[in-house]
Structures are given as structure tokens and as C-alpha cells.
Amino acid sequence: MHYLGMWALEVPGYVTWSLDLVLVSIGLGIFFSSAALAIALGHKENWGTLAAALMLTLAIVSHHFTAMGAVQIVPDPTQTSHTLSLSPGFLALAIAGVALSVLGMSLIGVLADRRLASRTSQFEEIINQLSVARQQVERSQRELQEQKLRLDTAINHMGEGLCMFDAEKRLVVCNARYAEMYRLPPELLRAGTPHREIIQHRIATGILKGEAAQQLVSTINALPVNATASRIDEFADGRLICVTRQPMAGGGWVATHLDVTEQRRSEARIIHMAQHDALTDLPNRVRLRVRMEHALAIIREGGSGLAVLMLDLDRFKEVNDTLGHPTGDKLLQAVAARLLECIRDTALIARLGGDEFAVIDYVTNPVVEATALAEKISHALCEPFDLGDHRVTIGTSIGIAIAPRDGTSPDEILKSADLALYSAKSGGRGAFRFFEPELDQLMRARRNLERDMRDALAKGEFELHYQPIVNVASGEPSGFEALLRWHHPQRGLVMPADFIPLAEETGLIVPLGEWVLKAACAEAAKWPTDLRIAVNLSPAQFRSKELVSIIVAALANSGIAPQRLELEVTETVTMHDSEAVFAALDQLHKLGVRIALDDFGTGYSSLSLLQRFPFDKIKIDRSFVNALSDAKEESRLIARAVVRFAVNLGRTTTAEGVETEEQLEILHAEACTEMQGYYLGRPMTGASVLSMVRPQAQPARRRKSARSMAH
């Protein structure tokens, strides 16, 4: 603007320019105006506006005055001016007005720019907010997509079928398990499919048939939408589906469909296993009690009687021990099969454990029908059993109780039958007995005796008596046999025959036998060292793994030599777990303990036993000694043959039960080594033995003849 105005200037002369100042004026104008623009855009405050106006003023002034300094007018009188001449005052005012206008317009421009910048800032803020909102929407959409994916993954990996229907009974959503469970085609899986079409498809494809389909359709039609329900659908292929339906807020429902087929089968198997024997698959004691309670309830309402037969197999333990447990298991299975052939449909057979069974059946004539059933079972079980590699023959003992005569509860009836079984076993194998009230009294007496026997061991009521064993050649005792006696506070003297069998049956014989060993060895320690002590061992003691250590401890505590202890065992000891028995005997024999075979001649395995184990002594049973003086010649010949055979084996031979002089003379003639019996000496207390054998006693007293010792 400045240079255009200068170009329009007409003066009487020539105008010349200083190029340096022209360039400086242009540079100053550009510099200060750019600074003004930068300040105006960068600082919106009041001071920024003032600084921008000042810089713009400097731009105009510095440019104008510098440019004016760059012009030089050379007067030329020959040149004349034709333009309008203005007075200097007017010109100054005009220039000032123009300058002020420029400043005003600059100020207006700055204010307008500031307002525009404010609007721009607001617009940018709105855009930023819209951008943030758009990002939030996009993030929400992604989250919804992820949640939908997770939801789809979750419901499609459920083990249960899931479906959701709206208030109009139209499908909203379902998972893959639901479609697979009911074999639904894709066209039925779309949202909006009516529930009725799905049910009709299940019926048409044969998944539901007959009454199950009709019942389901009627249930669906009658069930309100907002109802809660649970049911079990049985499929035509045998599957069981548990359907649980829950209403939703706003109408409709959601249902889960769970295949419970294997669960129900497992539950049925568990219930069966809990109520049946694993080996024979017969009902067990639990199932028997349930059946008996049901039967007794029927009887109380006027039904007939109930017969309860308790069975115990004869000789089963021998089969189990000699042929092994697998053979024993086969035998039990075969017994169960035969028992099932003996009963009617109304009867029940249960295995109570081991070789014990029970049979219950309704009876109208108790004695006749129960007897017939017992005889039928006895006959069936007496027949040989072919078990593959073995053919065995057993029998059974049976106890019979009749309800309600012998009891009104399962416990009472089973107890009565068990007492009758105990009576049958006591009377011999292969028998059956009915319950009698006297049996209960006998059992109570037996329990009382068992209780008293346990107390007696703790209170020291047992004591040992000692019967002499006389050497036939010298007539002097070679040792003594320890015999157990029980001084009961009320009963008085109780003989071994009355309590030893009960002790063996209850297992009390093990601690009792340990006490006998320790007491006998301790008493023998007081005798001269040439006298032996003989102690009987029960088969039950050999079933204890501590037997050898107990004997060793008794010897060590008493201080007697092992050769002075003589253990008497019967053949029945080796019939059960014979390998363990022979191992224990061999271990004791190597320690120096003498082993005597008791009751020789009464068992079937005497010869095989003598071959398997080198016994130190053979004790001839008293039954053969008594037969030596029998009136029957055959009995005497058999007895002599047994004695002669035992003597010829070359071992020490002791004859038991010598009660007459005739028996003594015959045994002496047959070269029997030792004798024992009332004729030679009765059992005596330890104090009596000690007074007879003590070293300070007269020699003549120790050399008593066999006849004098009898008195």
C-alpha cells in the first residue's frame, strides 16, 4: 500500500530510491506483522491481544518510516504537477486517519479471530467428545460381541441341554446340546419356532412314544407359562432326561435338560451293591432285615407265619484252608446256586458273611414246612460239588426260628435262629434244630461264663496243677504236665472241659495260653534241672504270629533250658494253615524245645505227620490205654497194635490215662517209655511238687515206685 501510494505521487522533480532501505522496510514489515499474528493466535488473553496490536503497529510504522527514508526527490523546475494539491495539515490528518483505520481494522480482526478461535475450540471439543463417544460405542460393541461369544461358548459347552421360550411359547435361544439331545434339524433351531413344533418333531422321530409322549403333550398344554416344574422323560431308546423348568421375568421360561441315565444306573448299582453280597450276588444282611421287617408287618396284619433258617456250612473251613480261598469262593457260589433251586418265589436267601446263610419264607404250618425246607436244603448241600479241579463234599447245620412265636422283630428272630444254629452245631454236623426258650438261657450262661473268664484272667483266679509223667524203667518222674484249673468265686472249681472250648471259640485262649506258658516255666525253674515241664498248645495259639516270641520270652524270663520245655500239640493243629504251623514247630525245635504229638492214633493223618515232622515224643491216647483191659479181644488187639507201633517208631512214648495195675503191666511189657495217669499220680499244686522234688528231700522219696505214687 505504501509503495503504491508513493508511485502515484507527482512532484516537480525526479524520485529516486535507496534499494537497501526498501529491502529493510519490507523486512521490518514482514517480521513485526508475523510476530503480531503469532502472538494473536498463540495467546488468547488480554495481554496477548495488546501485544499483538503493538507488534502490528510497529510493523506499519517501521515499514512506513523506513520506506520514507528510502525515497529521495530531486527537484526539477521543468516538471510541473497537475494533481490536486493538498495542504500539509489536511494531509497529516488524512494520514493519521488512515493509520487509525488500519489499527482499528487490525483490532477488529484480532477480536474476530479470537472469537473465531473460541468457536473453533468449542467445535474441536465437541468433535473430541463425539470421538470419545464413538470410541466408547465401539468398545461397548466389542465387549458385547465378546460377551456374546463367551455366552455362546458357555451354553454350547454345557453338559445340559438349554432352551429359552418367550411368553408366546416361541423359541428364543437354545444350545447345541439341546439340539443334539432331541435330534432337532437346523430349521427348528431358529428363533421364533413354536414349542409345539419341537414336541411334534420328537414324537414323529420316535424319540418319545406311547404313554410318555401323550403324558408330555398333556403336561405341556396344561402347564402355565410361568409355572415351575421338574420331570423325568423316559425316551424310547431307554434314556432318562431330567427337565427342570423355571419362569422368566416378563413371561416365558428357561429349561435345562439333563441326561440322568448313567446317574440312575449308577445309583441303582450302588443300591444293589449296598444290599447284595459281592461274591454270590445274594441279598446281604441289610436287604434281609428290610425284607423281614416287611414280612413281619404283613404277619401283624393277620398274615401267616415266617420261617427263618440260619445255615452254617460244615467242613467249609477245611476246604478253604487246604484248597485255597479261590476254591472256597467257587464253593460259596455253587452253594448259593443250589440254595436258589431249593426255595419258592416267596422265599429270600441271604449271605450273612463267611459260610453263613439265611433263608426266610412264609409258612402256614411252621413245623412241617420249615422241616421240609431244612431237609431239602440239607440233602442238596450234602451232594458233592464239582469245582473244576476239585470235587468236594460238605454239609450244613441249620437253626430254625418261627415268627411271631420266637420273636416279633428282625433282631429277635435272627437271634433265636442263631441260638438254634449253635445248638445244631453242638449236636453234630448235618443237623437242624428249632429254637427253644432254654437255648436263650444257655446262651446267657455262656456269655456270663465268658465274661467271668475274662475277669478271672485279670484277677488271677487261674492256677496250674501238675501231673507226674513217670519213667517206666526207673519208676521216678521225668517231668510234669501243666494242667489249668479255675477257682471261680461262686462256681467253685471249674474244670478245663467246661471253659477251654469257650476260650478257644472266643479267642481268649491266646492270652490264657501265654499266661500258662510263663507260669509253668517259672514254676519249673524251681525244680531240679533233670525234670521237664509239658504244656499243651491250642490250635488257636498257632494262629497267632507271636507264639514263637512268647515261648522264647517265657524261657528267657524263667531261665530254664529250652530242652526242659515240652510242647504238646494235637493233629488238628496242622489241619489249618499247616505250612505256618510246621514253620513255627521247626523254629521251636531248632531252639531245642521238645515237641510231643498228643492224642496219637485218634486222627487220620498220624503217619503223614510223622513223616513231615520229627516229633520228639508220641503220647498214646487214653482211649487205647483203656482198651488194653477191655473185655473185647478185638479192642485189646487194636490197642496193643497202636502201642506197639508207637514204640517201634523209636521215639519216647508216653501212655496217658493209666488207671489200673493191669494197664501198667501191659504197657511195661510192650516197652512203653513213660506213663501218666491217676494210678501213677494225680495232679498236684506247685507247692506239693516242690516238696516232692526239692534237692534236700530224702532220695528214697524221689525213688517212689509207680504203685506208691498212685497213693
Features:
five-stranded antiparallel beta sheet, disordered C terminus, single chain, alpha/beta, elongated, 26 helices, 19% strand, 53% helix, 711 residues
Subunit arrangement of the protein: single chain
Q: Would you count the extended β strands for me?
A: 23
Global Rg: 61 Å
Strand fraction equals 15-25%
What can be said about the biggest beta sheet?
8 strands, mixed, barrel
Helix content: 40-55%
Low-confidence stretches: 696-711
Helix/strand structural class: alpha/beta
Count of helix runs: 26
Globular, elongated, flat, extended or rod-shaped: what is the shape?
elongated
What's the mean pLDDT score?
83
- Cα end-to-end separation: 173 Å
Spatial order of the strands forming the largest sheet: 15-16-18-19-20-21-22-23
What can you see in these coordinates?
With 711 residues, the chain is α/β, with parallel strands linked by helices. It is 53% helix and 19% strand. The chain contains 26 helices and 23 strands. Strands 15-16-18-19-20-21-22-23 form an 8-stranded mixed β-barrel, surrounded by 4 helices. A 5-stranded antiparallel sheet has the order 4-3-7-6-5. A hairpin with a 5-residue loop joins strand 3 and strand 4. The protein is elongated and about 205 Å long.
Furnish the topology, listing elements before pairings.
Layout lengths: L1 H6 L5 E5 L1 H24 L3 H24 L1 E5 L12 H69 L4 E5 L5 E4 L1 H7 L12 H10 L5 H13 L6 E6 L5 E8 L5 E7 L1 H15 L9 H16 L4 E10 L1 H8 L1 H18 L5 E6 L2 E8 L2 H17 L2 E2 L4 E2 L2 E9 L6 H17 L5 E3 L2 H23 L2 E10 L5 E12 L3 E3 L1 H11 L2 H16 L7 E5 L2 H4 L4 H12 L6 E5 L8 H14 L2 E7 L5 H7 L4 E4 L1 H6 L5 H16 L3 E4 L5 H9 L4 E2 L10 H8 L5 H4 L3 H4 L2
Parallel strand pairs: 13-14, 16-18, 18-19, 19-20, 20-21, 21-22, 22-23
Antiparallel strand pairs: 1-2, 3-4, 3-7, 5-6, 6-7, 8-10, 8-13, 9-10, 11-12, 15-16, 15-23, 16-17
